[in-house]
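Task card 7
Instruction: Convert sequence to structure tokens.
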Amino acid sequence: MRLRLLGSLLFSLIVSFIGSSIINNLLRFILPQIIARKTEGATIDFVGVAFTFLSFLFFFLLLFFFLMRPIVKKVRTLADGLMAIAKGDLNYRVPLPGQDELGEVAQNINYMAEQLQSMMKRERQIETSKMELITHVSHDLRTPLTSIIGYLNLLKNDHYHDLDEHKRYIHNAFNKTQQMKKLIDDLFEYTRLTSGDTNLTFQKIDLNSLLEQIIIEFEPIAQELSLTVKKDWEQHSLFAHVDVEKLMRAIDNLLMNALKFSLKPGEITVRLAQHGPSILFTVENWGNPITKEQEKLLFERFYKAEPSRRDRDMPSGAGLGLSIANYIVELHGGKIGLKHANGHFTFFIELPKRSQTIKYNESE
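Output:
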């Protein structure tokens, strides 16, 4: 556009100069014939110069305006587009006038509109998510709370036959309080991870030792449900930079998921190995098969498995466990996923040996 503007200016000047020169020559020939002979030559020269200047100015303005009309039209189009977007029509896109500077401005305006539209959409999604969060949490908390109130009413009114039934009511009420505590803990962890201001403290640790500690605490729970835990990893040290607390939470969520949905009696296999520049952790178990659609939803928040897949002896969660694990792994710069075939489930976590996220705090 700069070359076009400069070219229009030079062309207007040249044509105006030529046109004014022609008029000046004509005036030098015509004026002496029109003006009385008694008029002095200086006066004739002055009139000629005046006519020449005015003709030059006329030709220049006329040509420059004519040549600049397309550019003015493009600027008007940009102005109209900005006004439409300013009035709230974020679907409007400015037509691209070309590949010049004005075309670049039009592209930037359209990019701005897209970003504004994306931000508005994200704000609506956040608002919808908040309402869904309140709805799901209210429902999940109301169920165990209703049971606790029912058991406490039975105990308050002495509606039990013997001491064993009394203990059973207390035991059931206690289990419901534990279920409520887990729901609240999951909700707190989820909101903290998704708030955008989570700070991770990375440490260089031996993942073999960490996983061994987790399995020692997990095995008694699995044995109570007729499940054995098979450990499959080499005993040499395998170091990585991770946030220990967060990673333990992610691994624990995968193990508890396998605990809930494994066929019983059965086996849960835990593997840990170096996979190129990454470290691969997997949890394998057998359960009832699920569809491809269900596989895609497993890491979505509030998604719960069908009753046919769930172990009814295990307390129901809020459907946040795998979603929390997903967020934790992403914060570590890794990835989490599932491989499923005919009821054989393999959940995996792949982590870089040194975290790729650099905006968080790190301590050796």
